[in-house]
């Protein structure tokens, strides 16, 4: 399931997206990403916040 499908299905407002190595992706970068091309690997709730672990790999410079 893609991140876009997951968010539409579950109607989630607050969440943290992480990359392949579970590093949170900053919100200013998320707005430029194509969420329909990122797959959800796992989800977890920590301290009341939903963490969505994805298969995203950041481009290197």
Automatic annotation (TrEMBL):
Domain of life the protein comes from: Bacteria
Protein name: Uncharacterized protein
